[in-house]
């Protein structure tokens, strides 16, 4: 088909990994609710947590007071935390009130937080009890979004992994595409797969609860997000088989991802070329135009979203950048290996974080661009380093061909801004 050319000097799959287990600087897994509640249109996410959890979600989502979002917080009061009230009784009452007021809810997720984890509130048992109570109209599941248990994007992983055991059993040979995507990007992907003749295609998560989405020994699945390690394991436990591939960022990554699926379903080379040649050419042109400011520049990734490895592959191979360090909260070979194969040897690969030590390395390297969390961006900007917020790469449509130029533009914008500021200062 169209296998990408491996780097002449070797890739990074077998490179030594610097494993750090110190202080981290990252959002908690509750943040994933912000994109999941938009994606899953008949779901509701009820965080069992504190007012701090509620403030985090409101701030991250920018929800107006008159809006009707598909998430909320069941506040744990001091009496709950002190064991003076039966938190399960109160939770049952809140869920009853919520479902009576919102009959459109078909899936209810009880989301654990730091406070509920600390007091050992058994949300799994609560979900089982409430699922029986409200069946068959509402399915109640639970997962942890606690900062004790999860980082930033792991909230989506925990949510999808919780859905896998309740998916229907199927013997059909089907492709399951896993990972939440903006609707417009998902539609582009489904159009490409349909043109290739691949199908039936099922989605996890689907926009609405879908009885046709099943899993079984003839299911093959492809991941669209590189942070779905637990979901990957849960699907394999159900007998499904993973199609390993680079992630669909940029022209090369998208082509490799589609090529792996096409090979699995016996799509011939002529059909593949007919479907992909035109969007590939558009993507290459868009990346070339957007990445002129990136060529020859260096980039340093702090661990944040687990998108770091495929994004480093995109920036080095398609945008002409040099990676100094590529840090990721977790590295999962089955997921990240294909991208590490393509990432040219040279950068330090690091897993986990000891933020002070990594800051020292970044300051010593003085990269042209630093990709990091919000908490580090402003201090580094004050020290003269150009930064890109990692969280923006999750909230912005960046997958597949039509978004390739936008993806390059997200990285080039900080460098263009700095260049303009320098010009204005010189004048």
Question: What does the model show?
Answer:
The chain has helices at 33-39, 51-61, 78-81, 87-101, 114-118, 123-134, 154-163, 183-196, 229-237, 250-264, 269-290, 308-318, 333-342, 355-365, 374-382, 392-395, 404-426; strands at 17-21, 43-49, 71-75, 107-112, 139-144, 168-169, 174-178, 201-204, 214-215, 219-223, 241-242, 298-301, 322-328, 348-353, 369-372, 387-389. The protein is α/β, with parallel strands linked by helices and 427 residues long. The chain has three domains: 17-24 and 281-426, Nitrogenase molybdenum iron protein domain (Rossmann fold, 3-Layer(aba) Sandwich); 29-150, Rossmann fold (3-Layer(aba) Sandwich); 168-279, Nitrogenase molybdenum iron protein domain (Rossmann fold, 3-Layer(aba) Sandwich), CATH 3.40.50.1980. The strands form four sheets. The chain has a six-stranded parallel beta sheet, with helices on both faces. The protein has a four-stranded parallel beta sheet with strand order 3-2-4-5, with helices on both faces. The protein has a four-stranded parallel beta sheet with strand order 8-7-10-11, with helices on one face. Helix 10 packs antiparallel against helix 11, helix 11 runs parallel beside helix 17 (404-426) and helix 12 (308-318) packs parallel to helix 13. The longest helix has 23 residues, at 404-426. The radius of gyration is 22 Å and the shape is globular. The chain starts with 16 loop residues before the first strand and ends with a helix. The mean pLDDT is 91.
């Amino acid at each position: 088909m169209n296998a990408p050319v491996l780097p002449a000097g070797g890739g990074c799959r077998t490179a030594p990994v610097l494993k750090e287990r110190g202080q981290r600087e990252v959002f908690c897994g509750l943040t994933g609710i912000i994109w999941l509640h938009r994606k899953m249109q008949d779901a509701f996410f009820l965080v069992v947590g504190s007012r701090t959890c509620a403030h985090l979600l409101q701030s991250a989502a920018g929800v107006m007071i008159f809006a009707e979002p598909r998430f909320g917080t069941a506040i744990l009061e001091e009496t709950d935390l002190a064991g003076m009230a039966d938190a399960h009784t109160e939770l049952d009452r809140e869920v009853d009130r919520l479902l009576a007021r919102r009959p459109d809810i078909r899936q209810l997720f009880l989301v654990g937080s730091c406070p509920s984890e600390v007091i050992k509130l058994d949300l799994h048992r609560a979900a089982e009890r409430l699922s029986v109570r409200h069946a068959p109209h509402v399915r109640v599941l639970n997962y942890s979004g606690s900062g004790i248990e999860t980082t930033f994007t792991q909230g989506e992983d925990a949510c999808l992994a919780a859905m896998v055991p309740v998916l229907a059993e199927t013997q059909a040979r089907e492709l399951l595409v896993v990972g939440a995507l903006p609707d417009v990007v998902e539609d582009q992907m489904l159009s490409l797969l349909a043109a290739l003749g691949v199908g039936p295609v099922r989605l996890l998560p689907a926009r609405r609860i879908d009885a046709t989405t099943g899993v079984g020994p003839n299911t093959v699945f492809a991941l669209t997000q590189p942070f779905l390690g637990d979901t990957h394991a849960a699907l394999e436990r159900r007998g499904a088989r993973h199609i390993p591939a680079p992630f669909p960022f940029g022209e090369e990554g998208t082509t490799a991802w589609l090529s792996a699926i096409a090979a699995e379903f016996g799509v011939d080379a002529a059909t593949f070329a007919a479907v992909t040649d035109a969007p590939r050419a558009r993507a290459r042109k868009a990346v070339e135009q957007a990445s002129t400011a990136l060529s020859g520049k260096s980039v340093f990734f702090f661990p944040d979203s687990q998108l770091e490895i495929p994004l480093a592959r995109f920036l080095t191979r398609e945008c002409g950048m040099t990676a100094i360090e590529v840090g990721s909260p977790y590295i999962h070979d089955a997921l990240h290996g294909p991208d590490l194969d393509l990432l040219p040897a040279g950068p330090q690969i690091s897993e986990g974080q000891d933020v002070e030590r990594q800051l020292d390395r970044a300051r010593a390297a003085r990269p042209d661009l630093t990709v990091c969390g919000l908490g580090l961006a402003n201090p580094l900007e004050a020290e003269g380093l150009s930064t890109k917020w990692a969280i923006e790469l999750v909230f912005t449509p960046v997958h597949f061909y039509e978004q390739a130029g936008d993806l390059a533009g997200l990285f080039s914008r900080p460098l263009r801004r700095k260049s303009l500021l320098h010009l204005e200062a010189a004048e």
